[in-house]
Amino acid sequence: MSFYFFATVSFSADKFSIIKNRLDSSAVVQLGVLITVESKVFDDIDSAYGQIILAEDGRYRAEINGDIYLNDGNSNWEYSAENNQATQKIIRAGEIPDDRLTFFKDIDSFYNTSVVKKDFIYRLTKLDSADTALPDSMTVFLDENRLQISKIEYYDLNDDLNCIYIIEES
């Protein structure tokens, strides 16, 4: 007499992988963000609110506390509302454009992902090949109720804690 046992296993995709795939395949990603920087030296927390629009071809527009950051495909532009001054940096052939914002649409090209708490907390560690000014590592927190990132944390060169809260995404 033989017995056969059949088990059904549910292989649900990792929540962060689904989010990364959605961001990468979206023609345009729009984010409302709150950015905080916590300085231990000055015992202070600075904050800024902003809107970020990322296009699939690397162009972007961000407005943060009145300052504007723009990549039109040919140049990186920055406008300081406080100084009423704009600067332009032309992107030369073969030059890697500013990726401080665009990495968000292609996280796996810049970072290895490791799970801290599946479907909630992930650690991003910069790839050795990523020649960029991005942080060496970041912690990503996922929204418990929605399929999106809720917060990104990293420490800058001054050991200040930087938090980017994703308030809205479309």
Task: Label this structure with key terms.
mainly beta, globular, outer membrane lipoprotein receptor (LolB), chain A, 6% helix, 170 residues, single chain, eleven-stranded antiparallel sheet
- Helices, by number, come to 1
Q: What is the name of the CATH topology?
A: outer membrane lipoprotein receptor (LolB), chain A
Helices and strands, in N-to-C order?
Answer: HEEEEEEEEEEE
Strand-residue proportion: over 45%
> What is the SS-derived class?
mainly beta
At CATH level 2, the architecture is Clam
CATH superfamily: Lipoprotein localisation LolA/LolB/LppX
Please bin the fraction of helical residues: under 10%
Average pLDDT reading: 88
Question: Main sheet, how many strands, which sense, barrel?
Answer: 11 strands, antiparallel
Gross geometry: globular
Give the secondary structure arrangement, pairings included.
Elements (H helix, E strand, L loop, with lengths): L14 H11 L2 E12 L4 E12 L4 E5 L2 E5 L3 E6 L4 E6 L20 E7 L3 E6 L10 E6 L6 E7 L5 E9 L1
Antiparallel strand pairs: 1-2, 1-11, 2-3, 3-4, 4-5, 5-6, 7-8, 8-9, 9-10, 10-11
Explain what the structure shows.
- It is a single chain.
- The protein is mainly beta and 170 residues long.
- It has one domain (15-169): Lipoprotein localisation LolA/LolB/LppX (outer membrane lipoprotein receptor (LolB), chain A, Clam), CATH 2.50.20.10.
- Helices cover 6% and strands 48% of the residues.
- It contains one helix and eleven strands; from the N terminus they run αβββββββββββ.
- The chain has one helix spanning 15-25, and strands spanning 28-39, 44-55, 60-64, 67-71, 75-80, 85-90, 111-117, 121-126, 137-142, 149-155, 161-169.
- An eleven-stranded antiparallel β-sheet has the order 6-5-4-3-2-1-11-10-9-8-7.
- It is globular and about 45 Å long.
- 15% of the residues are buried.
- The model is unreliable at 1-11 (pLDDT under 50).
